[in-house]
């Protein structure tokens, strides 16, 4: 995942990024206590809204690659 001009994107690309393994447990650890938001330098005030957007983007990316989210 990465952020370019304030927009969250999945996959490699320009901008501030963070790699998350394809297991949902990894995603939840990355979201715990705002760790992923800090890594991507996202505003902490957006909290749960950002986290839910990240979850949706991550799940869509995983589904598109046919990986298991177990």
TrEMBL record:
One Pfam family matching this protein: YlxR
Top-rank taxon: Bacteria
Domain annotation YlxR: ranges: 12-50
InterPro entries according to UniProt: YlxR-like_sf (IPR035931), YlxR_dom (IPR007393)
Protein name, entry field: YlxR domain-containing protein
Natural source organism: Acidimicrobium ferrooxidans (strain DSM 10331 / JCM 15462 / NBRC 103882 / ICP)
């Amino acid at each position: 995942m990465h952020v370019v001009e304030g927009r969250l994107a999945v996959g490699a690309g320009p901008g501030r990024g963070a790699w998350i393994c394809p297991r949902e447990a990894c995603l939840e650890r990355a979201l715990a206590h705002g760790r992923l938001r800090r890594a991507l330098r996202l505003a902490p005030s957006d909290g749960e809204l950002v986290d839910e957007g990240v979850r949706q983007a991550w799940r869509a990316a995983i589904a598109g690659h046919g990986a298991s989210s177990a």
